[in-house]
Structures are given as C-alpha cells and as structure tokens.
Amino acid sequence: MAKGYSGVSLPFPTLAKEALQDRQLRANLARATTTIRNKRAKVVAEVSDWEALRQAGHDIKMESLANLSAHLEKFESEFATAGGVVHWARNSQEACEIVAGIALANQITQVVKVKSLTTDEINLNEYLQARGIEAKETDLAELIVQLADEHPSHILVPAIHKNRDQIRDLFLEKISEAPKDLSNSPRELAMTARAHLRNRFLSARMAVSGANFAIAESGTLCVVESEGNGRMCLTLPEILVTVVGIEKILPKWNDLEVFLQLLPRSSTGERMNPYTSFWTGAGDGPSQRHVILLDNGRIQTLADENGREALACIRCSACMNVCPVYERTGGHSYNSVYPGPIGAIITPQLLGPGQAKTLPFASTLCGACYDVCPVKINIPKILVHLRAKENAANAPLSEKLAMQAAAFALRPRGLKILAVVIEKSAPILTSKIFTKISKYLPVAKKWSAFRDIPKVRLNKKSKT
Predict the structure, then answer these.
(1) Which of 51, 322, 329, 352 is most buried, by CB atoms within 10 Å?
(2) pLDDT score of 330 more than 80
(3) Which helix (H) or strand (E) holds 240?
C-alpha cells in the first residue's frame, strides 16, 4: 500500500533538510529534470506563436473558472444524456465512498488504474484497500512507486527519484515475472512491467481513471498518455469510473486545439501525445461509465481572487523541472501529491488555513516557473500572496514589528534615516561578535542561520 498524504506531517524545511543529505537523490533529480527541460525547450522553439498559445490557454482557463457553475451543469447534462452517470463529491471522503460503493455493488475486489493525480490527492488506493478492494497502478512509473511502497515525487514522472539500477532491483524483489538476469535497460524494465500487468488488463472488470480535460459543450472526457496502459483501462473493463477535479472543465470542444498543443510540449517534450482518448457517456467499451466531479477545496480556492489562478494548472510539471528548490529537495519534501512550485500554491489552498503553511516559502521567487508555465500562471505572485496571508495570521509579534520597521525604512524619509543608522552602526553590525550573537536574536536568527552578514563598504568623504 502506498503511503497517503495527510497534510499534517513534517513541514517542508524538515523534510528538505533530510533530502539534501541524499546525494543519489540529487543526482537522479538533476539528470532527469535537465533531460526534460532540454526536450521541452526544443519542441517549444518550433512553435512560432507559442506565446500567443500560452495567452490563449490562460484566457480559456480563466473564463472557465469565472463561469464554472454554468459549465459544470452543461457537462452534467450532456454526459448524462449520452448514458453516463454523474456523481458530485464535496471532499475526498465522499469521492472514495462513491468509487468503493460502485465496486462493492458489482462484487468487484480488484480494479486497474490509469495514472491520476486526483485519485492520489484523495488517497483512493488506501481507502479501497481498507474496504478489501485492491487497486493496481498500470502506469509504469506509478507501478514502480506502488511496488516501492512510496508516493509519487513528480507530477509527470512519479518515480523520478529512482534510477534504472534501483528500479531493476525493485522489480527483481517484487515482480515474480521478472527474469533473474534482468538488466537495467529501459526496454527490459518496460517489458517486465508489461508481462506483470497483462493479465490484470484482461481480467479486470473495473477501471478508475482521472481526466486531463472535461468538455462542457459535449460532455466529453479526455485522457492523454504515452504508454497505452490508459487506453487498455478505458476500453477493456465492464465499468469505468473517472474522478475529475471541477477545475478541469473546458467550455468548448475547440478549446482542445490550444491545450493539445500546450500540454505535450510542456510535459513530456513531445509534439503530441501517443495516446489521446475521448469518451462521452456510455458507448463502445465499458457498459457503465461514471464520472465523479470533485470539489475537495477547489471552491474555497476559487473564492480567493488572488489565489484562484492556481486552478488553471493543466498538470504539465514544467514549473518543477526549472525550479532550483525542487531539483535539490525532490518531491517528497513537499508531502503532497502536488510538489514543486505549483504544489507550493495549490496544496495550501486546497487543504485550507493552517495546513501546509511552510510550502509558500519553499521558493526563491526567481520566476522561472512563471516563464515556462503553458497557461501563464503567475506562481511567484501567488506565493507572495500566500506568504502574506500566513504572516498576517501566524507571524510572531517580533517579526511583525520588524516588518513594520522595514516598511517605514523603505519610504523616502525612512531611507535617509536608515542610511545614517547603517553608517553609524556598520562597524558593530559587521563585527565577528555581532555575527555570532545574531544567530540567537528572535528575528535575525532565521536569516543569519544560513547567511553571513555582508560587509558594508562606506564611501569616505574626500577632504577639500
């Protein structure tokens, strides 16, 4: 059973400090993120109107969020008219209960799963296992993570923290079909997973998926993937249950023209996804098709006019691959299904006040995430907004007073006074004794614990 996400475990600074000690982890992350960055940059450079596409993606998502209620009602009507069943879930508990209820009503004890961040978000696998239902991941990377009894560390590449040698050793230990002379070649590893999963695909009576997009106009769901395991899950079983965050709604079918160009280039560095699947209600394949429209904190995020832009995310992971913090600490440090820059702004909002409060500070605010986001989410701006909210609610009095003093000092009159103070106190502030003392002062210790106080060079007035 993979470990779930509680939202109340160790904070990011503690987990990140531990991760920084793992040299193999840092090497794995640096190699993988560099490769993905380079692939993305190459295919993006081929598109002459890339910036116009980004703006179009942003505009479509923001319009969809502005009229979310109407689009959801339209989707429900169209999907139901086509023979599908629509469920609504306010939180993870309700969503998990619906999935388990469908399985138990049909005497199903095993389900296969398409890679889905939303089902990870609600800890569906753990819930189903507690009800006697085994959920088998079929995406290669998700399978690796599940076999290792871990949770994903990357939105696109869940097992990015492992190298091929580690995966080979894991397969030899956990997969009975693995040949004893299994090498670390990608082909052999993929074929071993294929042999392990083949009977699961053919015997499964129920599959669970997420969706990349839900089209309101036609009641259509869309999944894009690279391995073909998703296509197997979406077509072979008798029952298909799809769990979709309500923010995945797009108003019109034609909107896919924009997103099916933005998503593959920004995520896998491909011009298009090898497998793009669409379905509307019931039809060929599964005789029962259910969709669960999930809130789970999205409505409260939508209510924040300064933070709601995070809901425009299309889960490409481009922001993670350029983030210097993520590259050094890995995804597990965020203790969330959504790590990296996007996780730092979406996780605290989905969980609510007081939860994951250190994540908005897990950033250098360098802005690289904003530059690569295919839908132009201003991640640094939202980070600053969430930091301000957290500081206003929970910052100690000493820190609030220090910030008020800084605000005054940075005004024109305050700058003049500050310049005089710095000139008079520079010898003291830069002394070795004060440097040591500063590590214990209430406000200064957080800054000086990881930085040296810079030496101040004063301009001496020349005598005339």
Answers:
(1) 329
(2) yes
(3) strand 239-245
Which backbone phi and psi does 118 adopt, to 5 degrees? -65, -40
The pLDDT of residue 42:
96
Sign of CA dihedral 250, 253, 255, 261: positive
pLDDT grade for 360, boundaries at 50, 70 and 90: very high
One of 3.40.50, 3.20.20, 1.10.357, 3.30.70 is the CATH number of 49-95+211-226+236-315, namely 3.40.50
* Percent helix, strand and coil across the chain, each to the nearest 5: 55, 10, 35
The answer on pLDDT for 464 being more than 50 is no
Report the DSSP beta bridge partners of residue 436: none
Model confidence at 64, pLDDT cuts 50, 70, 90, reads: very high
pLDDT at 435: 62
Per-residue confidence at 1, pLDDT binned at 50, 70, 90? very low
Domain edges within the chain? 15-24+37-46+317-394, 49-95+211-226+236-315, 400-448
- Which residues lie closer than 8 Å to 326 by C-beta, 6 or more apart? 29, 33, 320, 339, 340, 341
Euclidean distance between the first and the last CA atom of the chain, given in angstroms as a whole number? 80
Q: How far is CA 182 from CA 137, 149, 175, 245, in A?
A: 21, 21, 11, 39
Please state, in angstroms and as integers, the Cα–Cα distance from residue 369 to each residue in 55, 295, 323, 331, 366, following that order.
Answer: 15, 26, 7, 16, 8
pLDDT of residue 285: 84
At 180, the pLDDT band (50, 70, 90 cuts) reads: very high
What 8-state DSSP symbol labels residue 192? H
Is residue 117 within 8 Å of 155, Cβ to Cβ? yes
